[in-house]
Specification:
Blueprint (H helix, E strand, L loop, with lengths): L1 H10 L13 H14 L1 H15 L12 H15 L1
Length: 82
């Protein structure tokens, strides 16, 4: 399911277009939104941000225009750790 979330964030496709190889799109959608509600994504971002800054990347912003960029950075950081 996390791969489905990563695919969706990386590509920007609608949830229903997440390939079946990642499982049912609705499960990836539910996981993403559950983690957003319970603060898991914020926790991941908070822990990865110092590592990104350490590697010379710009500090992450939290305003709406930056959301897509930040999601891409988050996915890249998670991919790097996997």
């Amino acid at each position: 399911m996390i791969d489905g979330v990563r695919f969706r964030v990386r590509t920007g496709v609608p949830w229903r277009d997440v390939p079946a190889e990642y499982g049912p799109w609705s499960r990836s959608y539910d996981l993403f939104h559950r983690w957003r509600r319970d603060g898991t994504w914020h926790e991941i971002l908070t822990r990865l941000q110092p590592l990104a800054v350490e590697q010379g990347q710009k500090p992450m912003r939290y305003d709406k225009p930056a959301v897509r960029y930040e999601a891409t950075v988050l996915v890249a950081a998670v991919n790097e750790r996997l």
